[in-house]
C-alpha cells in the first residue's frame, strides 16, 4: 500500500513527494520525470525568465499527462510571467522567498493550488493569511537559498501554527528515511531538491552533477559570499547553501573585504565565466552525504516511497 | 506496546529516550526522574566539578534504582573525575566535545557503556575508533554547545557510517513527533535536552525556566558571543545555542569588537553577576517553539513515548 496523505489526495498524485522547483535546473524533463514517477514535478521558474519558461512548459506538456506545477521566486518574478504559467493550467504554483501577496489571488482565480514556501514562523503566518493551500516548511539544510531554521524542529512548529493547512517538509531530505521523518513530524509529504538535482534529467553541467554525487559528509555550507561575488540582488536574509569550494575558503568571514575588492570580484567573474568548479556556486543541500549516484528521477520517487514505508515499518521491531 | 530498540535493550530501559547531560542543570533529581520515567537519566557532569558531582551522585542514588549515567565534556574534564563517577557504577558514561581517547579505556574497564557524542562525520569516525558502544549524533538545533550539521540529514549519515553501532539522535527533539522522526531516520532513540531543562527537576533559576517556556518560535541562535563575554575557554569550533537576548542583538557580527572592548566586557560581567536575563546565556535548542509548559521530567518521558507511537501509527492513514 502506498503512503496516502492530504497532499497525495489534494494533488492527485501517488507518492507524497514533490520536486523542489530549483531555478533553471528543474526543467520540463525533470518535472515530467518526477510527475511520471508518481510525485509532483514543479518547474523551476526562478526569477521568471520568459524564454526558459516557454521552452520548459512545452517539454513538460510533451512528456507527461500527470499533475505538475511551477515555482517562482516572489522577490523577483513579474505577475505577467506567473500569469503565463497559469495559462497552461498547472495543478499548483509555488511561491518562495519574499512576499507572495501580489500573486495569491491570480493563482486561485486560475484554479491552481497555491503553494507557499516559508523559512520562519512569521512567513508561515503570512502564508496562512495569503490563503495558501499548502505550505512548504523549508529548513536551513536545504540547498540553494533559504533561512536559518532546521527542518526537524521547524516542521512540527509550522504544522501546529497553520493547521489545518497541509505542510510539506523541505531541507535535508534525500532518501526514504528523510521522507518518513517528514511524515511522522506531521508533514503531508516532502519537497526534495538536491537528490533530484543529481538525476540525469536535471539541467546541470555533468561536472556539477558529478561534484554533488562525489561530495562527502559535511561538504556544504550556507553563505552569502557567492551572491556577493556574483553581484546577485538576492535579499540579504536568504543565504545560499552550496558545496564548499576554494573561493569560499578564501573569503569566509571576510564578506566586507570581498565587496571592497574589485580585483577579486573581476577574477571571480572570469573564473565563473569558464564555469571553474573552484568558484561557481554548486547549489546543494546538507544531505549530499546520502547521494551516491545519479539515479533517474522517476526511480528516485519510487525508491523514496518504498524506503519510507520500510523505515516506518521497521521501528520498534528490533 | 512500547517502542523497543537496540538502545532500550542495551541500557535495559523502557523508552528510547535519554536525558542530555546538560552541565550543572542535569542534576541528580532530574536524572533520577528521567530514569524513573523509563528513560536513561544522565547527570550533567560538565567540565568535572568534583563537589557538584559528589552531591548529585548522592541524590541520584537516593532517588532511583533504575539505570542512570553521567556525561562529561572531553575537552576539559580530568580523568580522576571520570573515575570518581565510574566508582559509583553508572550504566553509561557519555563524553562530548573534544577528544574522548583519554577516557575510553577507563569507561570500558569499569564495565560501563561508552557513549560518545559527535557533531560531524570526522568525530563519528573517531568515536567508532574509540570503541563507542553508542554514538549520539547531535544536530545544530541543539541547545548549548555544538556543531553545524542539522539533525535530520546528519543522523542517517552517521547511522550509515558507524553501523552496527547504535546511534541516538540529538538536537531539535522536544516532543514525540521528534522522537518518531529520530527512530525512522535509523536512530535507536533520542537524547533530549531543552524539554527536560524546562522541567521542575532541572537545576535552573525559575526565571530562566519561565523564559524557555515563554520563548516563541525562531527565538534561539547559535553564537560565540556569550563565550567571548564570559571569557570562557570553550574550543572555538563549538558554538552555543541560546535564547536571543539584548546583548546578542548588540554584538552580533561584531565578535572582534567585543573582544577588544574592556568596558563592554566589564559591564557584561556586572550584569551577569546579578543574572540579568538580558545578557546571561539561557541555553536552549531550536525546539523551544514546542515547549509550552514546565512538565515534570518523568511525565515528559512517558508523553514522548506515547506521542511517538501515535505519530508512527498515524502515517498514511489520512
Describe this structure in words.
2 copies of one chain form a homodimer. In chain A, helix 3 links the parallel strand 2 and strand 3. Chain A starts with 5 loop residues before the first helix and ends with a helix. In chain A, the strands form 2 sheets. In chain A, strands 1-9-8-6-5-4-3-2 form an 8-stranded parallel beta sheet. A 3-stranded antiparallel beta sheet of chain A has the order 7-11-10. The first copy, chain A, is 43% helix and 15% strand. Chain A is α/β, with parallel strands linked by helices and 318 residues long. The radius of gyration of chain A is 19 Å and the shape is globular. Chains A and B meet through helix 7, helix 8 and helix 15 of A and helix 7, helix 8 and helix 15 of B.
Give the topology, please:
The structure is a homodimer of 318-residue chains.
Chain A: H1 6-11, E1 17-19, H2 28-36, E2 41-44, H3 50-63, E3 68-73, H4 79-87, E4 92-96, H5 101-109, E5 113-118, H6 121-129, E6 134-138, E7 144-146, H7 151-162, E8 167-170, H8 176-184, E9 189-192, H9 194-197, H10 206-214, E10 220-223, H11 225-229, E11 239-243, H12 246-251, H13 255-259, H14 262-273, H15 297-314
Parallel strand pairs in A: 1-9, 2-3, 3-4, 4-5, 5-6, 6-8, 8-9
Antiparallel strand pairs in A: 7-11, 10-11
Helix pairs in contact in A: 2-3, 2-15, 4-5, 6-7, 8-15
Q: Give the CA-CA distance, first to last residue of chain A.
A: 23 Å
**Helical run tally of chain A:** 15
Structural class of chain A: alpha/beta
**Bulk shape of chain A:** globular
DSSP strand content of chain A: 15-25%
Q: Portion of residues in helices of chain A? A: 40-55%
Number of strands of chain A: 11
H/E series of chain A: HEHEHEHEHEHEEHEHEHHEHEHHHH
Largest interface comes to: A-B, 56 and 56 residues
Task: Give the mean pLDDT of chain A.
Answer: 96
Q: Which residues of chain A form runs of ≥5 with pLDDT under 50?
A: none
Identify the strand order in the major beta sheet of chain A: 1-9-8-6-5-4-3-2
Main sheet properties of chain A? 8 strands, parallel
Q: Mind telling me the C-alpha Rg of chain A?
A: 19 Å
- Oligomeric state of shown chains: homodimer
Amino acid at each position: 500500500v502506498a503512503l496516502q496523505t492530504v497532499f497525495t489526495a489534494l494533488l492527485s498524485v501517488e507518492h507524497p513527494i514533490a520536486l523542489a522547483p530549483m531555478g533553471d535546473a528543474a526543467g520540463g524533463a525533470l518535472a515530467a520525470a518526477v510527475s511520471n514517477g508518481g510525485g509532483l514535478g514543479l518547474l523551476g521558474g526562478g526569477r521568471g525568465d520568459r524564454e526558459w519558461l516557454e521552452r520548459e512548459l512545452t517539454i513538460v506538456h510533451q512528456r507527461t499527462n500527470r499533475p505538475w506545477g511551477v515555482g517562482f521566486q516572489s522577490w523577483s518574478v513579474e505577475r505577467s510571467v506567473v500569469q503565463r504559467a497559469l495559462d497552461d493550467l498547472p495543478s499548483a504554483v509555488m511561491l518562495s522567498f519574499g512576499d507572495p501577496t501580489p500573486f495569491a489571488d491570480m493563482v486561485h482565480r486560475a484554479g491552481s493550488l497555491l503553494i507557499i514556501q516559508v523559512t520562519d514562523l512569521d512567513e508561515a503566518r503570512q502564508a496562512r493569511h495569503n490563503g495558501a493551500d499548502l505550505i512548504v516548511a523549508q529548513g536551513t539544510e536545504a540547498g540553494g537559498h533559504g533561512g536559518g531554521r532546521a527542518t526537524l524542529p521547524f516542521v512540527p512548529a509550522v504544522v501546529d501554527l497553520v493547521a489545518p493547512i497541509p505542510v510539506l517538509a523541505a531541507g535535508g531530505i534525500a532518501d526514504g528515511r528523510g521522507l518518513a521523518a517528514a511524515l511522522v513530524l506531521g508533514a503531508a509529504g516532502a519537497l526534495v531538491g538536491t537528490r533530484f538535482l543529481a538525476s540525469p534529467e536535471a539541467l546541470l553541467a555533468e561536472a556539477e552533477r558529478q561534484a554533488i554525487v562525489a561530495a562527502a559528509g559535511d561538504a556544504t555550507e550556507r553563505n552569502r559570499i557567492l551572491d556577493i561575488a556574483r553581484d546577485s540582488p538576492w535579499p540579504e536574509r536568504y543565504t545560499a547553501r552550496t558545496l564548499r569550494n576554494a573561493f569560499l575558503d578564501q573569503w569566509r568571514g571576510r564578506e566586507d573585504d570581498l565587496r571592497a575588492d574589485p580585483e577579486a570580484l573581476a577574477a571571480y567573474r572570469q573564473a565563473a565565466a569558464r564555469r571553474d568548479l573552484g568558484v561557481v556556486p554548486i547549489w546543494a543541500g546538507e544531505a549530499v552525504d546520502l547521494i551516491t549516484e545519479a539515479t533517474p528521477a522517476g526511480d528516485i520517487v519510487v525508491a523514496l516511497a518504498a524506503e519510507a514505508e520500510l523505515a516506518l515499518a521497521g521501528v520498534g521491531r528490533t
